[in-house]
Write a structure and sequence with these properties.
CATH class of the largest domain: Alpha Beta
Number of helices: 21
Helix content: 25-40%
Oligomer: single chain
Structural class: alpha+beta
Number of strands: 29
CATH topology of the largest domain: Aldehyde Oxidoreductase, domain 4
Mean pLDDT: 92
CATH superfamily of the largest domain: Aldehyde oxidase/xanthine dehydrogenase, molybdopterin binding domain
Strand order of the largest sheet: 10-11-8-18-15-16-17
């Protein structure tokens, strides 16, 4: 249970969420608030600020009420995080960047979530305010450092003026500004008001890596850990407004089904049920449904279960078998070309193709299964809307809500709370659950209910509610020449588009190719002279889909890394050595491959297992989100095919590791998440109805299934890249290759079926 945060009637909610307004903070207690952001097009140079992930020329800096860093008279340094903290360590990373250049004492630094404000809090790589694609640290690296450096310069200038000494003689260390010659010193809070009166520097000098004290430091305490440990962290489920009602919903059993009639008499007779509200969905965005409103989740849940609903039977009716049958029909025909080098089809048919491998791979729909199911708190006013949630895609959600309500986007206020995981689910391009919460509040208002509404999905709602990682089918033909070198590779991918019909369609669908469907295959790094990758996107599969942790790499990495392994064996070569040769022009791929192999003792035979057990070791390497990861997996297999992944050795090159402990944690988490999918995960449909419901039918990884994990970080001075997602893709192929090494059997369908591994 979380802490219920109650707000007295009449309290300014913006003050509660953001602590105090930036202007009032300065007026009341004296403080330094600094905002650094990219200037809008055509903005005057005096009102813009530096902040470019690419490290271009510094733009102007401005003092703004919505800021990245605030220093109060109480000596507290508050970092305003534009990115959602959902367990991935973003709050710690952003705070590290600012505190490093500010030379703050880590203990004095706190973090709060930024409100929705695209101008100031835009993700410089995504072009909108949002957290996703493992971009938070990569895009904030220089922007946040410049915010800290500018604040430090203003503190130094204020001290120099107060003490009448040259600024060049002043040092700053762990939150203390000092002039050693005169033995004068002051903490940040003592100088905050005076620093706020200083001109904001237009250019700042950033530290060299040799001077870093926090960046790259081991065992730097995470900023979100204390609150999550003592229960004071506030998630949407914890947050409560006066007179708030909870909505638990009934959705149609088939996607996009309608409602014929509702008998709510039994539900209304239950204690605590306030109202039963049917509401209309929006095709392609969120489902039709019936909401039961109560003052608490339990009563709303019981009321929902007491509803008698006759559903319109016109929803999507295909089952998983029929879906994959259609995919196979598409895979038999040419698709749109995502990449073409040389002439793969001619090479495959030529006499130079000494050995040809043909393979078909099948990947099911996957649910995100974050520990906090979907929820969202909405308060409607006259022409306004306020939202509280673990918000991952502020700009897109703001626009979607504004369109639904017919109000300007600036009238939609979004307050950012913690999120209990997401894995992409809270960054739905269609804003499904956010729109659903707003639609319920709107329908309730039409029934005379003005109270704020909190939508709460149960685990069953979350598992059956759609918006899955799409199901995919791959058909691949690859050939070796007479010397055992790869000659040709022809790959067809079939699967739904995540982006078609979304706000991102124009950016990420090019020439009909959804880039999220082919990433990891269309950019295959191996030196293969004849390579062609095609995509077929079915138009008649209405299962709601969106990105899942690592997006397209979740299936493309499995195909590419198991098939390259198969080519190595067919060539009579060691899988590690085979890859290493083909990556001669890819030094960062090769670097993690070599590191993982060395740390795993690749060339040393595995210790034998117990009598009757078979043991194997497999390797995989993959780049995603500009980070490079190689993994070596060791497995033990019993005679009945049941197996245990004993050990995973992981090497990661993510550029400069801002927080090494966070990098390790994300690799470990990605390995566990990827292993759960490989062992257990599949969303299946029968006659259009999802067959899974809770963790008993869609199981997570159990603690006794987690292997021993070693993470080795490549030392690098390159620009930092993402770590939240890249640990997932290599895991399943590394395990599959280990299973082959032990059994001689290739597994081409996920999740793994142990019966295929029986002796």
């Amino acid at each position: 249970m979380g802490i219920i945060q109650r707000i007295p009637s009449g309290t300014a909610l913006s003050a509660r969420i953001e602590n105090v307004s930036r202007r009032n903070f300065l007026k009341q207690v004296g403080g330094l608030a600094l905002g650094l952001y990219l200037a809008p097009v055509g903005a005057d140079s005096g009102t813009a600020a530096p902040g470019s992930a690419g490290g271009g020329p510094a733009a102007a800096v401005d003092l703004e009420p919505d800021a990245f860093v605030r220093i109060g008279a109480d000596d507290r340094v508050t970092v305003i995080a534009k990115h959602l903290e959902m367990g991935q360590g973003t709050y710690t990373g952003l705070a590290t960047l600012i505190a490093e250049e500010l030379d703050a004492d880590w203990a004095q630094v706190t973090v709060e979530g930024a409100p929705a404000d695209t101008v100031r809090y835009k993700n410089l790589l995504m072009g909108i305010q949002g957290t996703g694609g493992s971009t938070a640290i990569a895009e904030s690296f220089e922007q946040m450092r410049k915010a800290g450096a500018a604040a430090r310069a203003m503190l130094v200038a204020a001290a120099a003026q107060r003490w009448n000494v040259p600024a060049s003689e002043i040092t700053v260390e762990r939150g203390v500004v000092e002039h050693r010659a005169s033995k004068r010193k002051a903490r940040f809070g003592e100088l905050a008001a005076a620093a706020a009166a200083q001109p904001v520097p237009k250019e700042v000098r950033l530290k060299s890596p040799q001077a870093f004290k926090l960046i790259g430091r081991q065992r730097l305490p995470r900023k979100d850990s204390p609150a999550k440990t003592d229960g004071s962290a506030i998630y949407t489920q914890d947050f409560k407004l006066p007179e708030m009602l909870v909505a638990v919903v009934a959705h149609p059993p088939r996607f996009w089904g309608g409602i014929k009639r509702v008998d709510a008499s039994a539900a209304k007779a239950l204690p605590g049920v306030v109202a039963v509200i049917p509401y209309a969905g929006k095709p392609g965005a969120f489902q039709n449904g019936v909401a039961v409103l109560s003052h608490n989740t339990w009563h709303a849940w019981k009321g929902r279960d007491a509803l008698k609903i006759e559903w319109d039977d016109s929803g999507f009716k295909l089952g998983s078998e029929e879906i994959f049958a259609r995919y196979r029909e598409l895979a038999a025909k040419p698709g749109l070309i995502a990449r073409r080098d040389g002439d793969a089809q001619s090479a495959l048919a030529s006499d130079t193709a000494a050995k040809v491998i043909e393979a078909e791979y099948e990947f099911p729909f996957l649910a995100h299964s974050s520990m906090e199911p979907m929820n969202c708190l909405v308060r409607l006013g006259d022409g306004t809307c306020e939202i509280w949630n673990g918000e991952q895609l502020q700009t897109a959600d703001q626009a979607a809500v504004a369109a639904l309500l017919g109000i300007p986007a600036e009238k939609v206020t979004i307050h950012q709370l913690y999120a209990g995981g997401s894995f992409g689910r809270r960054a739905n391009p269609q804003a499904d659950y956010v729109l659903e919460a707003v639609a319920i509040a709107q329908a309730a208002r039409a029934h005379g209910i003005e109270a704020p509404i909190k939508l709460v999905w149960t685990r069953e709602d979350d598992t059956r509610g759609g918006w899955y990682r799409p199901a995919y089918l791959h058909r691949v033909r690859a050939a070796l020449d007479v010397h055992g070198a790869p000659l040709a590779w022809h790959q067809r991918i079939v699967g739904q588009s995540i982006l078609k019909g979304s706000p991102f369609e124009k950016v990420l669908i090019r020439n009909g190719i959804d880039e999220t469907s082919v990433e990891g295959a269309a950019d295959l790094p191996y030196d293969i002279p004849n390579l062609q990758v095609e995509l077929a996107t079915p138009e008649d599969i209405a299962v709601p889909v969106q990105w899942w942790r690592s997006v397209g790499h979740t299936h493309t990495a499995y195909v590419t890394e198991t098939l390259i392994d198969e080519l190595a064996i067919a060539a009579g070569k060691d899988p590690y050595a085979f890859r290493r040769t083909l990556l001669a022009r890819q030094p960062r791929h090769r670097g993690v491959l070599e590191l993982a192999a060395a740390k795993a003792d690749w060339h040393r035979p595995l210790a034998p297992g117990a009598a009757g057990a078979r043991r194997g070791r497999g390797i995989a390497v993959h780049k995603s989100f500009n980070s490079y990861v190689a993994q070596v997996a060791e497995v033990t297999i019993a005679r009945d095919g049941q197996f245990k992944v004993d050990r995973v050795v992981c090497a990661v090159d993510c550029g400069l590791a801002i927080n090494p402990d966070v990098v390790r944690a994300q690799m470990e988490g990605g390995i566990g998440y990827g292993l759960a999918a490989a062992l257990h995960s599949a969303i299946t449909l029968k006659d259009g109805v999802v067959e899974q419901a809770n963790f008993n039918t869609y199981p997570p990884l159990r603690i006794d299934e987690m292997p021993a994990v070693e993470v080795h970080i490549v030392s690098s001075a390159e620009h930092p890249t993402g770590v939240g997602e890249p640990g997932v893709p290599p895991l399943a192929p590394a395990v599959a290759n280990a299973l082959y090494a032990a059994t001689g059997k290739r597994l081409r369908k996920l999740p793994f079926d142990p019966s295929e591994l029986k002796v």
